[in-house]
């Protein structure tokens, strides 16, 4: 019997598949450019430094319950604990017979945290705001927390990634705010850390997609609901952050004492929450966009 040759895939399908494969690389480039932009703005300019430092110093207030929660969260965010989480995530990927996800998880954690430590060690912080302090850009705690949360989203089954992403976003936001409250980092340090993790994670997803091809499947309903929650959160807090930063900048340059230190701190908190929500929106979209026909394991 004569074998029938397989029908070639339509050009439109091939185009969608190529676009699906290359999208993570585009996200990685955009995130890297964003991190450079954050550094130029909040480290390389006097006004950016002043606004960032105002948020840092504005968090100096005491509230027993809030302080206890933030302190416990920071204490739990240690490399040993995060290493256990990442190892468990990699093991979960192996148990699911997804060695590619296990390798991608290891790549994400190692590259993101190594890059952050290298940047922190070699970047200079010029004294432009009159507040002498060593370079803290980017945040190691935010990088560690975000990379662990990203890994968990990556290795969980596709239908649960949105829910895990929402929980991870909450955890990362609390850790990031806690670092500012403890005066370890400025909000700009956190924004850069999130972008670095997103860039490294996007490269990892690109490697996974190279191994698997096919048309993209639609998001499950739980993931779509999570995306809606994160989108609303990002929109509201981003608006508050922009208005707040403009007010703080005006206070720093033209109208001293226009806003309080507490206001500047809360503006930084809004910016961190907005950046966290936006980052996880992109990450859930990337990790949930697996092909309908998975490659043979």
Automatic annotation (TrEMBL):
<keyword id="KW-1133">Transmembrane helix</keyword>
<feature type="domain" description="Phosphatidic acid phosphatase type 2/haloperoxidase">
    <location>
        <begin position="102"/>
        <end position="205"/>
    </location>
</feature>
<feature type="transmembrane region" description="Helical">
    <location>
        <begin position="228"/>
        <end position="251"/>
    </location>
</feature>
<feature type="transmembrane region" description="Helical">
    <location>
        <begin position="164"/>
        <end position="184"/>
    </location>
</feature>
<keyword id="KW-0472">Membrane</keyword>
<protein>
    <submittedName>
        <fullName>Membrane-associated phospholipid phosphatase</fullName>
    </submittedName>
</protein>
<feature type="transmembrane region" description="Helical">
    <location>
        <begin position="21"/>
        <end position="42"/>
    </location>
</feature>
<dbReference type="InterPro" id="IPR000326">
    <property type="entry name" value="PAP2/HPO"/>
</dbReference>
<feature type="transmembrane region" description="Helical">
    <location>
        <begin position="101"/>
        <end position="119"/>
    </location>
</feature>
<feature type="transmembrane region" description="Helical">
    <location>
        <begin position="76"/>
        <end position="94"/>
    </location>
</feature>
<feature type="transmembrane region" description="Helical">
    <location>
        <begin position="190"/>
        <end position="208"/>
    </location>
</feature>
<feature type="transmembrane region" description="Helical">
    <location>
        <begin position="139"/>
        <end position="157"/>
    </location>
</feature>
<feature type="transmembrane region" description="Helical">
    <location>
        <begin position="263"/>
        <end position="284"/>
    </location>
</feature>
<dbReference type="InterPro" id="IPR036938">
    <property type="entry name" value="PAP2/HPO_sf"/>
</dbReference>
<keyword id="KW-0812">Transmembrane</keyword>
<dbReference type="Pfam" id="PF01569">
    <property type="entry name" value="PAP2"/>
</dbReference>
């Amino acid at each position: 019997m004569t074998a029938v040759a397989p029908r070639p895939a339509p050009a439109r399908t091939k185009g969608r598949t190529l676009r699906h494969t290359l999208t993570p690389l585009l996200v990685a480039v955009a995130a890297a450019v964003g991190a450079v932009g954050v550094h130029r703005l909040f480290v390389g300019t006097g006004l950016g430094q002043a606004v960032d430092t105002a948020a840092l110093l504005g968090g100096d207030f005491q509230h027993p319950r809030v302080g206890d929660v933030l302190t416990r969260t920071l204490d739990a965010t240690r490399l040993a604990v995060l290493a256990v989480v990442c190892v468990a995530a990699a093991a979960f990927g192996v148990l699911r017979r997804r060695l590619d996800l296990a390798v991608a998880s290891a790549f994400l954690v190692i590259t993101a945290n190594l890059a952050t430590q290298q940047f922190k060690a070699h970047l200079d912080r010029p004294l432009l705001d009159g507040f002498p302090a060593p370079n803290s850009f980017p945040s190691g705690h935010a990088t560690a927390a975000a990379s662990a949360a990203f890994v968990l989203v990556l290795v969980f089954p596709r239908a649960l990634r949105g829910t895990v992403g929402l929980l991870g976003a909450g955890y990362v936001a609390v850790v990031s705010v806690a670092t500012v409250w403890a005066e370890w980092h400025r909000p700009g340090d956190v924004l850069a850390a999130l972008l670095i993790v997103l860039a490294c994670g996007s490269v990892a997803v690109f490697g996974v997609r190279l191994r698997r091809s096919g048309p993209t499947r639609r998001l499950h309903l739980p993931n779509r609901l999570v995306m809606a929650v994160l989108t609303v959160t990002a929109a509201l807090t981003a608006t508050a952050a922009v208005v707040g930063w403009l007010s703080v900048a005006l206070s720093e340059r033209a109208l001293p004492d226009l806003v309080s230190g507490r206001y500047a701190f809360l503006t930084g908190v809004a910016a961190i929450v907005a950046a966290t929500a936006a980052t996880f929106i992109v990450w859930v979209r990337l990790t949930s966009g697996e092909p309908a026909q998975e490659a043979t394991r």
